[in-house]
Amino acid sequence: MSTPRQPSGEGAGGRRTIKGAAPRPGAPRGQSGAKPPAAGRARSPKPPPPGAQPAKPQPPEPKPPKPARSQPARPAAAGSQPPKPSAARGRAARGQSPKDQPAGNRQPRPQSAQGRPARGGRPSAATVRPAVRGVRPPQQRRAEGRPPAGAPPRRRPPQRRPASRGIRLADPRRRLRVITVVLSVVFSVFAGRLVQLQLLDSDALASDANTNRYLNIPITAERGSITSSDGVALATTVDAYDITADPAMFTPEATGLPDAPEQAAALLAPVLGLPKEKLAADLRTPKTRYKRLAAQQTPDVKNQITDLKSSLEKQAGSRACQAQKRLLNKPADEGGRTRVDNECVNPLAGVFNRDTQKRVYPSDGLAANLVGFVNAEGEGAGGLEQQFQKQLAGKEGHSSYAQAGGRLVPTAGGSLEPAVPGTDLRLTVNRDIQWAAQRAITDQVANAGAEKGYVIVQDVRNGQVLAMATSPGFNPNDLSTAKNSQLGNAALQDAYEPGSTAKLMTMAAVLDTGKATWDTKVTVPYPLVRGDVAFKDDVEHDTWYLTLAGVLAKSSNIGTIEAAQTLGATQPEANRVLYDYLRKFGIGQQTGLAFPGETAGLLDKPEDWKASKQYTIPFGQGLSVNALQATSVFSTIANGGVRVAPSVVQGTTAPDGKYTPAPAGAQSRVVSEQTAKTLTEMLESVVSDEQGTGGKAAIPGYRVAGKTGTANRVDPKNGGYRGYTASFIGFAPADQPRVTVSCVIQDPVNGHFGGQLCGPVFKQVMEFTLKTLQVPPSGSEAPNLPVEWKP
After folding, report:
1. Most buried residue, 9, 21, 227, 263, by most Cβ within 10 Å?
2. How far apart are CA 46 and CA 51, in angstroms?
């Protein structure tokens, strides 16, 4: 065991008593300041050579910290010799590096007290590790340069750092600190960006991503059908296709072509029949992923575009084109390309087709003025299509799906809101009667050289319109051939002065108030002066002696003025009574159809019947009506004096198939049943009597009641009178009325009397209607009321 080390101290004489070698400051535990000689013998150091300076005395070393537990020194090998100090000094003087020494004789490099090599490379006694434990010999302590007793202590020269023998490296701790700071800043930026993307802006970024990735496509609801009373379609919907595009797929970045919209437009224009400039502009629409290029295209158009797109896709997928695409964005020395040839790009990749519907009218122009039409967007733009737009259109749906490169991504999800089909509309119109009425009025308008004409057929029992024909008409399947004036429904939108057909209302007021009877004697002079106006009949004549039935049969304006004057003690009073009856018949107010553009006609207040108007209104001039209003007046008389509001809709069928009948028309009594019966017999005289004006409306086997009308026509352009309005309105069978038919022709050239022009039309349409409805012939003869009396 090694002997425990005792602390060193100084005696009174200044000499230290050393129990063991003083440890080197900072040296590990167990290392002493000098290396003892090898075990077995002690060798004194050799005196310095002649001329060498004695070693400078070293200052006393600071007291080292408490040394660690010493370890036993490794014993020297047997027979080894310690190196001679003179040899070591000789090598140092020659500048021989310890590396140049043989490996077996190389001594450890002496260190200074601070752990650095001693100056001159000479090992100090304090830094030599002893080979064996024990006390150094006195000779060795003196060799360390300790001054003799009593000599002044010599100051230790400042130690200098030895010159660098190689590349000096920077302080690694400073480098680590810099790298740590830089990495901390970088990771802080990354962490802040992650927080922004994942927490702060996540919703907005996800929304933007979905906006660019997902396509929202509207799903058009199937439009409801419009059918005749027997369920035959007058307007229906068939499959069609909207040609659409994604403008984002036509940018130079997406296609690699600077003029992709122009190339696509050049290919689509001949197929769609649209200008190339318009198509190119649509394909360049910014900030949208959906643009409709053409609506409601046929399957043939869709197939042409699909085939063209497939052929271009096949060409772009050829081996040569694929090779070009692989060279994109590669270096030029590797044969790289900045773009591919035009033949290797499909400019129609962003063109699609969407299933939709197209409105068609199987009967072409049949009842077109009543049914109406739709515009290019598939919305009702006229007639019942416009009036019932909301019910017919249904509710549009929406589809959202993810796409990539114009193709559906099936695993990316989406949403679907199905469309709700529209409601079907069943009309009161009889398709066969409509066809007969339309053919008759079309032929007569052409024969008379008239501007236009219209025919209405109405069921007197319930007010339902069985036919409403207008000429000229139009084909809603091809609106390009129609004029704007033809697209409306003149039977409801034209306001005209009815003329002599309005005399029925005057006679109804006179009879219903009891002021006269059918056989009341009326003297009819020619002319009749009232105020400063001389009134005349349509033909010049001597004084007529007519019954009230004769006044109606011969359509005397003068006789009607005289009859109307009996309604009151004064003219204003008579005007008020007549006005009230006109309103009861529905004049000056809507019919109740709520048809788009329908006119209510014109009927001034009785206080405004000034000058000649109070005398012209009784025979149908100075007020205006539409054709359905005039027809309803005769239906009211045919229905026993009860007016039923007209209707054109029989019922509706909901998307679930449930049929709902339309409510019955409102009813109101206008005149008494007896008055209506008397008026019916008076109207029969118009047709059956030789002096009547409606002989051409007679139908063999049926009793017909009706009235002709010939009125000065108001020119809508200047508001003055120009031309005529010819008309005939009647019902049959007169003994059991079932149907009312009205005919109106505007501004005829070949004739202008109502009985002449419209009488034949009435007969043709009425005969067909009675046969279609299987109405039996009359079982009795007409009463043939006397029309004249002898003074």
Report:
1. 21
2. 14
Cβ neighbour number for residue 445 with a 10 Å cutoff: 22
Whether residue 408 has pLDDT greater than 90? no
Q: What is the 3-state secondary structure (H, E, C) of 31-90?
A: CCCCCCCCCCCCCCCCCCCCCCCCCCCCCCCCCCCCCCCCCCCCCCCCCCCCCCHHHHHH
Number of H helices, E strands in the chain: 22, 26
Q: What is the 3-state secondary structure (H, E, C) of 183-218?
A: HHHHHHHHHHHHHHHHHHCHHHHHHHHHHHHEEEEE
Q: 783 with 467: CB under 8 angstroms?
A: no
Residue 226 has pLDDT above 90, yes or no: yes
CB count, 10 Å around CB of 185? 10
| pTM listed for this prediction | 0.68
Asked if 705 and 683 count as a contact pair (C-beta separation under 8 A), the reply is: yes
Residue 545 sits at the vertex; the CA angle it makes with 539 and 547, to the nearest 5 degrees, is 105
Side chain identity at residue 629, one-letter code: Q
3-class state of residue 453 by DSSP: strand
> Is 719 within 8 Å of 698 (Cβ atoms)?
no
Longest dimension (CA), the chain: 193
Name the residue among 529, 527, 548, 550 with its Cα closest to residue 538: 527
What angle, rounded to 10 degrees, do the helices at 627-638 and 503-512 form?
40
DSSP state of 624: B
Tell me the sheet residues that pair with 544.
524
The yes-or-no verdict on residue 119 having pLDDT over 70 is no
Secondary structure (H, E, C), 224-289: CCEECCCCCEEEEEEEEEEEEECHHHHCHHHHCCCCHHHHHHHHHHHHHCCCHHHHHHHHCCCCCC
Sign of CA dihedral 252, 253, 254, 255: positive
Element (H, E) at 92: helix 85-93
- Give yes or no for a contact between 670 and 643, defined as CB atoms under 8 angstroms apart: yes
Report whether 136 contacts 117 (CB < 8 A): no
CA distance 338 to 639: 87
Residue 5: predicted pLDDT: 45
The tokens of 233 are what? Answer: 């379609």
Name the more confident of 656 and 198: 656
Cα separation, 560 vs 682, whole angstroms: 14
Alpha helix stretches (DSSP H) within 639-743: 673-688
Instruction: Supply the pLDDT for residue 461.
Output: 95
- pLDDT tens digits, 729-782: 999 999 999 999 999 999 999 999 999 999 999 999 999 999 999 999 998 888
The label of the residue with tokens 């198939």 reads: 657
Three-class HEC string of 509-560: HHHHCCCCCCCCEEEECCCEEECCEEECCCCCCCCEEEEHHHHHHCCCHHHH
